[in-house]
TrEMBL record:
Belongs to the DNase II family. It catalyses: Endonucleolytic cleavage to nucleoside 3'-phosphates and 3'-phosphooligonucleotide end-products. This is Deoxyribonuclease-2-beta. It is found in: Lysosome. Keywords: Endonuclease, Glycoprotein, Hydrolase, Lysosome, Nuclease, Signal. It comes from Cnephaeus nilssonii. InterPro entries: DNase_II. Pfam families: DNase_II (PF03265). GO terms for cellular component: lysosome.
């Protein structure tokens, strides 16, 4: 083999290895393996049970499994599903990799007592490179920590139940995400978007720049929806603005009666709604296994599912409450007809409220 041919071969091998490394950003399971998607349900802290209940236990389901399993890890562990997935963010930050971008947002910023209702009631994280990345939408206040601090789980997320969903996307899907994230009006508290992404992605760099200035957030013009794809699973993303009626609007868009589970704070809940062709019912209690259950008053989770027996079997997981006090807040849901996700969430419903 000539020296020239050897150099060419080595260069091709390097580029091939570089490409493999670049495609590794993904949602991760508890073993650290890449998965197309996962969803979790962090269980509330139960004051009436044995002391080992820490408010850090969770249920887990991903694209390789068929039903909930209770994790052996606690949510504050780096070996939890969130710890494994977010490890990619903290490693990219430590390596000062200019080929990777990230954007973190939460209306309740980590380690801050300030809370602004000017922004959407949105909570999430995006991490990506030129090949692919993931989008995590969740309900956890003050999470996750900024890259400089590494992974942890906040005390504010322990008392109540919490949910989230992570989806892996090819880079060519990020233009759709870019335009929809602007409408969510997120409160961005940490971000880095290198120049190489700014030709295709217009709004996320603007949101990132806004996060370090005193500029007012963009006005929210009204609810909207969009479609996108994960790597292997069709998912429909609904990002909407008027949260006061978001479940009513979603029910009509999805053409299905919805059972909704969002934080049922006393004197702040909306009643079930049967005034339109497709109805919305409040879930009132969640069952875990056997006799174990908890009330919606203990649940900060945000999700809804098609009523059992209806033709369209939708599950939506996001970051908005069904509350009159969030009438002008924005946020988003990832909705899917995946049968395993639907069956997992349907199995959690102990009972729900009919219309009065």
């Amino acid at each position: 083999m000539t020296a020239s041919l050897l150099r060419t071969t080595l260069a091709l091998l390097f580029l091939g290895l570089f490409g493999v490394l670049e495609t590794t950003i993904s949602c991760r399971n508890e073993e650290g393996d890449a998965v197309d998607w996962f969803t979790f349900y962090k269980l509330p802290k139960r004051q009436d049970e044995e002391s080992r209940k820490t408010g850090l236990e969770y249920l887990y389901l991903d694209s390789t499994t068929r039903s909930w399993k209770k994790s052996k890890q606690l949510m504050n562990s780096t070996r939890s599903v969130l710890g494994r997935t977010l490890e990619q963010l903290y490693e990219a930050y430590a390596s000062k990799n200019n080929n990777t971008a990230y954007l973190m947002y939460n209306d309740a910023v980590p380690k801050s007592v300030n809370y602004s209702r000017r922004y959407g009631h949105s909570k999430g994280l995006l991490l990506w490179n030129r090949f692919q990345g993931f989008w995590l939408i969740h309900s956890i206040p003050q999470f996750p920590p900024i890259p400089e601090e590494g992974y942890d789980y906040p005390p504010t997320g322990r008392r109540n139940g919490q949910t989230g969903i992570c989806v892996t996307f090819k880079y060519n899907q990020y233009e759709a995400i870019d335009s929809q994230l602007l409408i969510c009006n997120p409160n961005i508290y940490s971000c880095s978007i290198p120049a190489m992404f700014r030709q295709e992605l217009i709004h996320m760099p603007q949101l990132c720049a806004r996060s370090s200035s005193s500029e007012n957030p963009c006005p929210a013009p009204g609810h909207t929806s969009a479609s996108s794809l994960s790597i292997n699973t069709n998912l429909t993303i609904f990002l909407l603005i008027n949260s006061r009626h978001f479940c009513t609007w979603m029910a009509q868009q999805l053409k299905t009666h919805l059972l909704t589970e969002t934080w049922q704070r006393k004197r702040q809940e909306l009643p079930s709604n049967c005034s339109l062709p497709y109805h919305v019912y409040n879930v009132k209690a969640i069952k875990i296994s056997g006799q174990s259950y908890f009330s919606s008053y203990q649940d900060h989770a945000k999700w809804c599912i098609s009523q059992k027996g209806t033709k369209n079997r939708w599950t939506c997981i996001g970051d908005l409450n069904r509350s009159p006090y969030q009438a002008f807040r924005s946020g988003g849901f990832i909705c899917t007809q995946n049968q395993h996700i639907y069956q997992a969430f349907q199995g959690l419903v102990l009972y729900y409220e009919n219309c009065h």
